[in-house]
Write a structure and sequence with these properties.
It is a single chain. With 130 residues, this protein is an all-alpha fold. It has 4 helices and no strands. The chain is flat.
Length: 130
């Protein structure tokens, strides 16, 4: 039993899902839905508890779908993420250097087209103290 809770605690520090986390999720939602079902029965079908039951069931289905999607995707380790990040920073530096070279080699100057008159006259508005 303590191995389950230790594994559940450690799952917070690992990427992806662990069996303990999935079991705890399912147990939590079963307990929530049972509680809501009892409240629906005890209140003679209160619409609020029915709505909460439906929302909780849809949330549980969405979480199950998300867990299945996570299983189909290969998660990267921290070393792979660091390697990808360092490669991206090298590429960013190369692209910045290319932009600088293009600006230095550029022979055209930008032409500004600004108009000094506006279609609507501006009004000075003062705030009045009440």
């Amino acid at each position: 039993m303590t191995d389950f809770f230790t594994g559940l605690w450690n799952s917070a520090f690992q990427p992806g899902t662990t069996p303990q986390l999935i079991i705890a999720t399912h147990v939590s939602f079963v307990a929530l839905l049972l509680t809501l079902a009892w409240l629906i029965y005890a209140t003679n079908g209160n619409i609020h508890f029915i709505a909460l039951f439906f929302i909780a069931a849809m949330l549980w289905l969405a979480i199950i779908w998300f867990i299945e999607e996570l299983k189909s995707v290969k998660l990267k380790s921290n070393d792979e993420l660091f390697k990808d990040d360092s490669n991206a920073s090298v590429k960013n530096e190369d692209s910045k250097n290319e932009e600088k070279r293009e600006k230095e080699n550029s022979t055209t100057t930008p032409v500004s087209t600004s108009t000094s008159t506006s279609a609507t006259p501006s009004k000075n508005v003062r705030s009045r103290k009440v």
